[in-house]
Structures are given as structure tokens and as C-alpha cells.
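Study this chain:
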Amino acid sequence: MPWTPLTLADPVGPFTTRKIDALADDTPQCHGLLEAASIGYSTLPPVSAGPNCGYANGVTLTRDQPRSIAYSPAAKTSCPMAASLVLWEKQIVKAAAREHLGTTVAQIITYGSYSCRRIGGGESGNFSEHATANAIDIAAFRLADGRSVSVAGHWNADDERSRFLKAVRDGACDIFATTLSPDYNKAHADHLHFDQARRGGYQYCR
């Protein structure tokens, strides 16, 4: 419901992204969400790199729970992105791994979060959500049984690995403001891009 507070235990619904939007203006509430869900995290020192880059609400998910999913490298994101990742892992990734791969995910491999750059890496245009640690790029998944599933290698495999990747992409579309995959363009052929651009609850998924 639109008037109920966000919790990380609730099922993802049509107002989830709008509620996550509000966390950008309320870091203590965001920290409280992680703590209420018993998610280990540590705060990051503020970063200031000019008018378009940096963050004041960064956290690292410390993953001190035995059955939590680790990130490599460690996910250092804005707090709203961290809360979004927790929802995605718990409600989307775990279910998709069981359904399509018959196992669990032990580790998520990323290309990182914070990067003071413009969209596409050029010298002009709008700054990327990476410039405020409000985005993350997912490259691959290491499974508990030793297998690996990568976006670059298995997106078009037409097997259970491909179905898993597309399931976690589809589920992300209900949580993140922007979800981009190899179906979007060649620049995303090797990763899934998630961000929480302030869109008032609107989402773009491809």
C-alpha cells in the first residue's frame, strides 16, 4: 500500500520504488531499514568530487550473516541502493536460483558502483548515476555448487543459465528505477545495470 512504511521483509509491490526514492532524503530511515532486517552494514566517509560527483550516504553491506550473498568487490553504494539490493537478493535472486539452477547464489561479481563519470564514459552529456554511488553493474554470479553464470557468457545460452539471468533482470525491474541488460544495447552486453535515479516511482526496464 502507498501509505505503509517500507520494510525489507514485505513483498515487492507497485509502490516499492517510490518508497525507495524517499530514502534518498532520509539516511537515518534507510539505516533503520537495514538494521530492522538484521543486515550488516558499515557507513562510508562522505566523498566530494565536484558539483556532480560524490555521496554523503554511502554504505558497505558487510555480509556478516552465514547465509547472505557476498559481493566481489564489496558493494559500496548509496544507502537506498543497498536497501534495493537486499530486496533484490532476498526476493528475486534466491527464488530464481532455486527455480532455474537448483542451488543458491554464494557470490555476486560486479564492475563496481561509484565512478565519477558521464553516461557512456564520454566527455559530454549527463553524469551517470554511478557518479553518486546510486548505481551498480552486475557481471556474474558464483553458485554454491561451484558453477558460475555470467551475463557475457550465458545471456543468450538458451538454457537454465539464460533463464536465470533473465529472471533476475525481470525481477529487478520492479525494484530499481532503471534496469538495463544486453537487450538494451551493446554497451550492456556483459552486465546488468541497476540504478535508483529519482523518477518519482517511474521505472525503465530493458
In short: The chain has one domain: 16-205. Residues 16-205 form one domain. The first strand starts at residue 41 and ends at 43.
